[in-house]
């Protein structure tokens, strides 16, 4: 499992042209929630509903990216990043979800895109990172097929304006979260708890992806623009790979979390085992003739987000109401071994390697980008001789090990072309509010002051040189067991 072999000789060299980026999402960073014609999204409603978000935090102000574009783009530039992944807030572009287009919203993102290009940074745009316009939710949100068509129109409007400049388009971020956390477990906006609604949402999100790609391809003019979708694929293991019941538990998780999305998106069908597992919830008649062909549009890059692993075993028969796993009735999650981040997520770089290899084996024709990977820790600013620093050795260690795992996957033949660290700056971490800090740049939420953490300095060096040199790694990769 160790990458120490070639590391000791020359360090880990990433391929020429490898994209070193950082990622963010509109609601998590922008603030300015009611400015310049922005409409309300489901996350405005949800975060303003008492008890839904830790400490009653909201994205009203966030880290004020909306008002600090130039400063923050300079920051990205100073880290030598070759790309920045950000999302566009649908309610800034089409405030009611359908109907009128808001010029001020388009102008804002045009400024971001132009600012990135002027600094030599590739704009990577996510069209949907969870901020559904509230008026669409009022008509059923992702349970309603009309939302897919509204999304396609929104994609076209954005593509018409920015399609000559954006380098990579990704339609959806983690539709798993939108569908199951939004509509089944209720942990995310809109906070529903219905297994049927969650499965309807799965399909309408997939449909939205396909319809949006059709529109985008018609209007995007940048010749080397790339198209993608970003899934959070489970890296699931069977507790006992020799036990068929544990293997079946793993299969159920993979069907719900991975193949429910990748099979229609990349292969043009819904997995028969998923339909079977969920038949007591729905007959899937909301999938109309021709839908899977619409969903199955060509893409260039498969985006994956990776944070930790999961292990499944056969559990007792139980109801899955209120869980994010509709229909996975004989499945039990096994606690993962530590160490853990501040999210309680286990640190498992080998899981990233396994996921990359497995994804490439299943879908060999696509380039892959890690659209998100990173870790939350309780960072603090310290001052040395008047200079502010944030020492985050755990995050440096985390990133080092995960980049090493990615490098190992490249050497094993995975066409991995980029890696976006989550996140550029500390920000609004959904149901956890501001309590979890994922940034490589620290934000003081009182003053909005940005301070590069040690991990940012470490990453800047990697992005500039493309190499993890031995002296930076400090022998860390040779420690046993965690690579
Ligand atoms: C992912 C989300 C991202 C962020 C990270 C920690 O699921 O896409 O917005 O919250 O988790």
Account of the protein in words:
This protein has 483 residues and is an alpha/beta fold. It contains 17 helices and 17 strands. It has helices at 4-10, 26-29, 42-47, 69-78, 90-93, 103-118, 134-137, 145-162, 175-183, 195-219, 244-267, 272-277, 291-295, 349-362, 393-411, 454-465, 470-473; strands at residues 12-13, 19-23, 83-87, 122-128, 168-173, 226-231, 236-238, 301-305, 310-314, 331-334, 367-373, 381-384, 387-390, 416-422, 441-443, 450-452, 467-468. The chain is globular, with a radius of gyration of 21 Å. The chain binds beta-D-fucopyranose.
Topology:
Layout: H1 4-10, E1 12-13, E2 19-23, H2 26-29, H3 42-47, H4 69-78, E3 83-87, H5 90-93, H6 103-118, E4 122-128, H7 134-137, H8 145-162, E5 168-173, H9 175-183, H10 195-219, E6 226-231, E7 236-238, H11 244-267, H12 272-277, H13 291-295, E8 301-305, E9 310-314, E10 331-334, H14 349-362, E11 367-373, E12 381-384, E13 387-390, H15 393-411, E14 416-422, E15 441-443, E16 450-452, H16 454-465, E17 467-468, H17 470-473
Parallel strand pairs: 2-3, 2-14, 3-4, 4-5, 5-6, 6-8, 7-9, 8-11, 11-14
Antiparallel strand pairs: 1-17, 9-10, 12-13, 15-16
Helix pairs in contact: 4-6, 8-10, 9-10, 10-11, 14-15, 15-16
Residues 25, 28, 173-174, 177, 232, 305, 372, 422, 429-430, 438 line the site of beta-D-fucopyranose (FCB).
